[in-house]
Design a protein that fits this description.
With 527 residues, this protein is an alpha/beta fold. It is built from 16 helices and 23 strands. The protein has two domains: 272 residues, 3-Layer(aba) Sandwich (Alkaline Phosphatase, subunit A), CATH 3.40.720.10; 105 residues, no CATH class. Strands 3, 4, 5, 6, 7, 8, 21, 22 and 23 form a nine-stranded mixed β-sheet that branches. It has a four-stranded antiparallel β-sheet with strand order 11-12-16-15, covered by helices on one side. β11 and β12 form a beta hairpin. It is globular and about 70 Å long. The N terminus and C terminus are likely disordered.
Length: 527
């Protein structure tokens, strides 16, 4: 596939340096900086529907991206069962498909990923780097700047080490929300709080947090809004780090909008669902998806103000979402999570499990270094069944990635009395089985309402970017080479995508292979 970038510094086609006039000193060449704002799973159809419902002023900064910058619908190359953010974000960051980079597990150890990320290329080319919350950044590497991995990382490590209180907060915040651990006690909270204030936490954010907790006391169903506090906290920390010493390449990630779509899409808009949302569901959760996008819009505005005159803000989602519609889960999927992972492992046989790490509900990662023990555990997990009435079916899915086993209890199409689980081939388990309520919980406030879709958002705004340009034929594989080109970093031959140089210079270079854009067909049964 041809490129619009010659792969060498100073190439005229790359648009890698641009001039700014400065009084009598004439023209000064300034190297572009790039901020990549990662808004997980947002998409233009939801943006457009909200604007149709409420008017352009409802999402003014999304409007600015399209009026003042270049934008596109970008398409992920992955399809189910590999259309997951922990795969698509790695594809976006590496510029190579899953078959090359090898990512398959959320917060997979970066040493097992077989491709460099954009921040690796930038760092190795002498650029300063600031990574905040991006996938595949664990463990963090020493850089000229900072690295804070995502909140599902297995440890609190950051670079530099002084930023570890931020990661500790994010990991604990996420695990408490997922009900996999307890909240900090008063002493730990006070001690960590002092460190967080020193790292940029603002009193107004603390006040917003306190107001939300008070709101929940009188209206418990408003707990859904708590998810939106995490990006506000992380903005404080990132903004302080960025203003102190703006890196040449920075990333910042938030998952809140994806969470709201997964859980509350039908409550907001049930027009595409076979079963309508109830009046109670709409009243309790109908504002969640709009709130998530309004918060995204506010964050875009903050990043636009943060970006310097020689900076390009790139707003992206590695894929999007669509309503969760399934022939099997007609009324929506009831999420089943482990009530006590230690109890589950005790029945399975915990020998050889070196590390147990919660990820997104309802998944857990088990590190098992012994291959024979790993194979035995896989066989035991695959042998777990459940009975629902007269029907017997598989109950838990397991995936193997290097030394990691990712285990996921399957959801339910309906919750009926008498569901039992059987640990076939597990010597310590009762052959009579266990009732659902003894091992698992089904306490998410709604059924699953959003599912993944390959089409996401991509937009460029800032230094030298054309205004009001709609890009076409954009693949997720085009993002990494374009980011590198913007920073005057050579694009490696391993990347099959092209530089989207039409965003800041001449006409688009024709693509030599067609871009797949069909919508995926939902699987009858999703994990």
């Amino acid at each position: 596939m041809r490129r619009a970038h010659c792969g060498t510094p100073g190439c005229a086609a790359s648009g890698l340096q641009w001039s700014l006039s400065h009084s009598s000193k004439g023209s000064v060449m300034v190297q572009r900086k790039v901020i990549l704002l990662e808004l997980n799973e947002i998409n233009w159809p939801v943006v457009d529907k909200l604007i149709d419902q409420h008017g352009p002023s409802y999402l003014p900064n999304f409007g600015r991206l399209r009026e003042e910058g270049a934008w596109a619908t970008q398409v992920a190359v992955e399809r189910p069962p590999h259309l997951d953010p922990w795969i698509t974000w790695v594809t976006l960051h590496t510029g190579v498909p899953r078959e090359v980079h090898g990512a398959s597990v959320l917060e997979q150890d970066s040493v097992t990923i077989r491709a460099k990320r954009t921040w690796d290329y930038a760092h190795d080319a002498g650029r300063s780097v600031g990574v905040f919350g991006s996938n595949s950044a664990y463990p963090p590497r020493p850089v000229r700047g900072f690295m804070i991995p995502g909140p599902f990382a297995p440890g609190d490590e950051t670079f530099p080490k002084s930023l570890e209180p931020i990661q500790a907060l994010n990991r604990r915040y996420t695990q408490v929300h997922n009900k996999t651990t307890a909240a900090w006690g008063p002493t730990k909270l006070a001690r960590t709080g002092m460190a967080l204030f020193a790292l940029g936490l603002r009193p107004r954010t603390v006040a917003a947090t306190a107001a939300q907790l008070a709101r929940e006391y009188f209206a418990p169903h408003m707990r859904w809004k708590r998810v939106g506090l995490q990006p506000l906290l992380n903005w404080d920390f990132f903004a302080r780090l960025y203003r102190k010493n703006p890196p040449d390449f920075a990333t910042w990630h938030t998952n809140h909008a994806a969470h709201y779509m997964h859980h509350y899409w039908r409550a907001w808009d049930d027009t595409q669902f076979p079963v309508a949302s109830t009046t109670e569901e709409k009243a309790a959760y109908g504002d969640a998806v709009p709130y998530g996008y309004r918060l995204c819009d506010e964050l875009i505005g903050r990043f636009l103000r943060l970006a310097g005159p020689n900076t390009v803000l790139v707003v992206a989602s590695s894929m999007g979402q669509q309503p969760f519609v399934s022939d099997y889960y007609v009324a929506g999927k009831i999420v089943v999570r482990f009530a006590d992972i230690d109890r589950f492992l005790g029945l399975l046989g915990p020998e050889g499990v070196r590390e147990v790490v919660p990820t997104m509900i309802p998944q857990w990662n088990l590190r098992v270094t012994d291959p024979s023990r790993r194979r035995q555990l896989i066989e035991r997990i695959e042998g777990i069944t459940r009975t629902i009435g007269t029907r017997t079916e598989r109950a838990v899915v397991v995936d193997e990635t290097d030394t990691i086993l990712t285990i996921t209890p399957l959801g339910l199409a309906e919750k009926v009395p008498g569901i039992r689980y059987y640990f076939n081939g597990c010597p310590s388990a009762d052959p009579a089985g266990y009732p659902l309520e003894e091992l698992f919980a089904t306490d998410t406030p709604t059924t699953k309402q959003g599912m993944h879709h390959p089409e996401g958002i991509l937009a460029f705004h800032g230094a030298g970017i054309k205004a009001g340009l709609k890009l076409s034929s954009c693949s997720i594989l085009d993002v990494a080479p374009t980011l590198l080109a913007l920073m005057d970093v050579p694009v490696p031959p391993v990347m099959p995508g092209r530089v989207l140089a039409e965003a800041w210079q001449g006409p688009a270079e024709p693509r030599t292979t067609p871009l797949e854009r069909e919508r995926p067909r939902p699987s009858p049964v999703e994990a």
